[in-house]
Write a structure and sequence with these properties.
Two copies of one chain form a homodimer. Chain A is mostly helical and about 220 residues long. Chain A is about 70% helix and about 0% strand. Chain A has eleven helices and no strands. The longest helix of chain A has 23 residues. Chains A and B meet through helix 6, helix 8 and helix 9 of A and helix 6, helix 8 and helix 9 of B.
């Protein structure tokens, strides 16, 4: 392994360890000592990569933003209408938040910190939601009179709320909660003809498994 | 002023100052020095009332919970149906969060901290929402097939999300956002006959001004 590969590997381990500490204890309580020892490296090695905890947090957010893009970019497939795409996208986000501590820590850092952060994952998430609501309007699958702004705010507000509430109770971040949310919301959003074909639990595309049918 | 009155007044000033620091800088960054000087008292006077920052935070949450009860208990008036009561209640919550820094800080502490807190304002808020959804089911004003659990989770998730997102952008915590949310949601929840009489912007009861008609 070259020196460059070793450095990249250490940086990845530090980002993961920092995400675990932020997720467990919150940003302020996480210490640089815990972050370096969690990654199995010295405090000096940490300082070779990062000047401060704020810089580690930025790296967590950047890594989370890259993963979010990689995972979500493929979801709103052209095979499904935009409202199904939006439903699938939130299922995909929740699955990603559950299994990837870097994305979860980055998302929470970004939502809770306000202006501190450089990479705003909440804003990035809002952009995905907004894009699909626009596509639904173009497809004319929204029910008459539905406000696009209202839909975007409702979906972004609820998903951010689910993530924050899941800190105290993991039930908030499950397929069951997301499916319940869409069962409640979709009848308002979709025109009746579209509604009949929508799956609040997400299509197999949402779950990333071509063999699996919607639960 | 008796010694007891002076002590009570100092305690109230400390709780308010702590709420302002938590609201502005977050729990971890707020210092006991800033809290005492914000209240215009010495560090010694603070320690006469509170042993630690965690204890100050508990006092903020308890004070917030008392205000929440006092303001919300009167809202779901018997004059309106439960779904209008729920709409009014969220408007009232948002107005309260906007103007009362102690409630805002207490609510955010409670939502973000997970298990740390003794008084769980998010849970208290959930209880109000749950009670009104139950009443709506008893009144048979919910649309057929609507899941009570789904409605409760959607309303609690979205309101918590709005509060958290408002840290970075105050637009999330406005009557406009709440009205937009209900315009999107109510057509799914309410049976069509009830829907015709509902006001997503809240009735005058929500805004606590008997002279004011719904905006």
């Amino acid at each position: 392994m070259s020196q460059q590969e070793r450095a990249a590997r250490t940086q990845t381990a530090l980002i993961r360890s920092a995400a675990e500490m932020f997720d467990r204890h919150g940003y302020e309580k996480a210490s640089l000592n815990d972050i370096s020892s969690g990654a199995g490296v010295s405090r000096g090695a940490l300082h070779f990569h990062f000047d401060s905890k704020a810089e580690v947090a930025c790296a967590v957010e950047s890594a989370a933003a890259r993963t979010l893009r990689r995972v979500l970019d493929g979801v709103p497939s052209e095979e499904v209408c935009a409202l199904q795409g939006l439903t699938d996208l939130t299922h995909r986000l929740v699955r990603l938040l559950l299994r990837d501590v870097v994305v979860r820590a980055g998302f929470l850092l970004s939502c809770e910190a306000g202006a501190r952060v450089r990479t705003d994952l909440c804003q990035q998430w809002r952009t995905y939601v907004h894009g699909l609501v626009l596509r639904a309007a173009e497809e004319k699958t929204l029910a008459p009179g539905v406000s696009q702004e209202g839909v975007v705010n409702t979906v972004v507000g609820a998903t951010v709320g689910f993530v924050v509430l899941s800190r105290a109770d993991k039930q908030w971040l499950t397929a069951r909660t997301v499916t319940g949310f869409w069962r409640v919301l979709l009848p308002s959003l979709a025109d009746p003809l579209t509604m009949a074909g929508l799956e609040p639990a997400g299509t197999r595309l949402a779950h990333g498994d071509p063999r699996r049918t919607a639960p």
